[in-house]
Amino acid sequence: MSKQGDGRQINTFSLWQQTSLITSTLIGVGVLTLPRTTTSRLFEAGWMAPLVSSIWVFLSVWMIASLSRQFPGKTFIEYSPIIWGSAKRPQLGRWLSLPWVLGYLLYMYVSTAIVSRIFGEVVVTSVLLDTPLEVIIITMFLLAQMLCMHEVEVVARVNELLFPLILFPVLFIALASFQKAEWNNMFPLYRASGKALFEGMYETVYSFSGYEIMLIYFAYAHDNTSKVRAGFFGIGIAMFVYTLIVLAGIVVFGFEELQRVSWPTLELVKTTQVPGLILERLESAFLAVWVAAVFTTVANAYYAFVYGLRQLFNKGIVFQRIVSAIMFIPLFFIALWPQNIVNLFRVSSYLGLVSLSLNLGVPILYWIVLLARGMGHRAKERKADG
């Protein structure tokens, strides 16, 4: 099925493509640090953090999907003025919605830079020791910019293609690492306080951030009723992968050892052996897969930012191509802004807090306005376009 817009065909996203978009975006740089950040607060019970954190994530993605279902064919950029304005005062709606739209776009822009910087730090400290950090970051930006040269259906196809190549190797590595499991590292099962559980949930926030891209991409759902299912499937898969990786890190290393390494998941891969020694250095294969995972995270977010600007100014694909090329220049300097790895982790922690405010606060606020204005059951079809 396809939609007609600006004289061109726009293929809509299937349930599988929507799920691929969400999961591929979530599984990224957070995978490498999650065992350390969760166990720093919850000790042996760190594996509970992804499970408990997923509750608010499911709630958030349900609200985002439900908002999109109210305005089928429209993105967050397009239906925001409708929610805040009226047919008689459309200009008022544009101005009242502008702070929320700009805040969303700014968050997508900055998070793209920070994810790219974390990716660069891992590569230059683990694999390409003599390669400048700047080269790694620029290469990732150029790949993301190439995706922005195309229409939105290409994003879905790229994620659909890469999704199995990311998911199955990550699951295999997580399961294979249990060969050296010391199950007594899990005991006592729970000795943290309720406050520590809340702090552990907060530490997991950044790893779950990324599904806010669906404020843009849900507009292209093939079936308007599939959005909630796609959100639940995508979050559920990511939750399972995160829980498995944290659990593997705890039973192999113990929570004390996890606090001494910057990239615990990478160290977990180094200790894993494939039966028959088919791959002697499994971390090389893992990093190859992880590059694809980070690419989907960076590219999906950057495309959502550029496409949002395109819709904000009501422009076409030529505008999108020009903006994508120009905007990655300041993006490069934002990525280099944290002076060291400590500052980088601190910035990512702050971004996690912003993500929580954005993903929960904005949908709740929008639903309050919708219900207050009696628009909660209105769903008029309008075809999404640039």
Detailed description of the structure:
Strands 1-2 form a two-stranded antiparallel ribbon. It is 71% helix and 2% strand. It has one domain: Amino acid/polyamine transporter I, CATH 1.20.1740. Helix 2 (30-42) packs across helix 10 (226-253), helix 5 (90-126) crosses helix 14 and helix 7 (152-176) packs antiparallel against helix 13 (282-312). The protein is mostly helical. The chain is globular and about 65 Å long. The protein starts with a strand and ends in a 14-residue tail after the last helix.
Beta-strand residue fraction: under 5%
**Major sheet: arrangement of strands:** 1-2
CATH class: Mainly Alpha
Overall form: globular
Number of domains: 1
Radius of gyration: 21 Å
Please identify, by name, the CATH architecture: Up-down Bundle
| Tally of alpha and pi helices | 15
Report the end-to-end length measured between terminal Cα atoms: 18 Å
Indicate the CATH topology. Answer: Amino acid/polyamine transporter I
- State the major sheet: 2 strands, antiparallel
Helices and strands, in order, run as: EEHHHHHHHHHHHHHHH
Poorly predicted ranges (pLDDT <50, ≥5 residues)? 1-9, 378-386
Provide the residue-averaged pLDDT: 83
CATH homology superfamily name: Amino acid/polyamine transporter I
